[in-house]
Amino acid sequence: MSVAIVTGANRGLGLELVQQLLQRDWRVIAGCRKTDVLRMTELAGAHPGHLHVMPLDVSSERSIAAFVNEAQMVTRTLDLLVNNAGVLIAGERYGEVAAKSLAQSFAVNASGALLLTQACSELLRAAGSARVANISTVMASLALTDTFRTPSYAMSKAALNMATRLLAAELAPHGIVVTSFHPGWVQTDMGGSQAPLAIADAVTRLLERILRMDAADAGRFIGSDEDQELPW
Ligand code: NDP
């Protein structure tokens, strides 16, 4: 049975990714900052041995190390890592951008994905061929940016895209494909209710594309439309 890790798994896209992976008969390790979420407890109860809910704060090196140790107790291989955890600090305006917002966004959105992937190297390599999906955003595109909007989010996700390129180059020789994805604008807490895409539809499409990842996708930035290439 294939094994996946999903970060930021207790709500939004992460929770739906977990549910759809379980429906596809994957074993899932769900990394959650808060593990005592009722939905996660219910899901774990409904999928004994298939869903492992473990504490993970991707902005903490110590938490990443403890999480990977715990993951290694339930699996020796990892077929898929979805770096989904993310934070968007809304309402930032030029002149008022705070260092703390930038630092927090970089720690979660960019550094967390690189550090967790690095810590999972052994598990990923042991799978023989594996995938790392970094959940980015079109708002990280330098080419498509012409207004001063959510700078902490946009800058940190652009850094995540660089992590994708760096990791793709480093890990390709080990059969590990690393790719950035924009999931579309989705009705989550982050996306808001005015977003055009329902969570289940967006994740169905995203997951279908993730599961088709192959060597040719290494280091790509893939949009929400079928095989759309986003400009860096
Ligand atoms: P949500 O805000 O609904 O969920 C974010 C998730 O990330 C939560 O589970 C949250 O946990 C978790 N998280 C935040 N900080 C940390 C941390 N330090 N450690 C571990 N987990 C953390 O967002 P979405 O589901 O909408 O977004 C998922 C991903 O998709 C993000 O990376 C986002 O940038 C990206 N994306 C979303 C779009 C959208 O329209 N929704 C569009 C483009 C990209 P907690 O509950 O503890 O806060």
Spell out the key features of this protein.
alpha/beta, oxidoreductase activity, 232 residues, NAD(P)-bd_dom_sf, 7 strands, binds NADPH dihydro-nicotinamide-adenine-dinucleotide phosphate, 7 helices, seven-stranded parallel beta sheet, SDR_fam, Rossmann fold
Instruction: Detail the poorly predicted runs.
Output: none
Instruction: Output the radius of gyration.
Output: 17 Å
Helix amount, in percent?
40-55%
CATH superfamily: NAD(P)-binding Rossmann-like Domain
Number of helices: 7
List the helices and strands and how they pair.
Elements: E1 3-7, H1 12-23, E2 27-32, H2 38-46, E3 51-55, H3 61-74, E4 80-83, H4 99-119, H5 121-126, E5 130-135, H6 151-171, E6 176-181, H7 199-211, E7 221-222
Parallel strand pairs: 1-2, 1-4, 2-3, 4-5, 5-6, 6-7
Helix pairs in contact: 1-7, 3-4, 4-6
Bound molecules: NADPH dihydro-nicotinamide-adenine-dinucleotide phosphate (NDP).
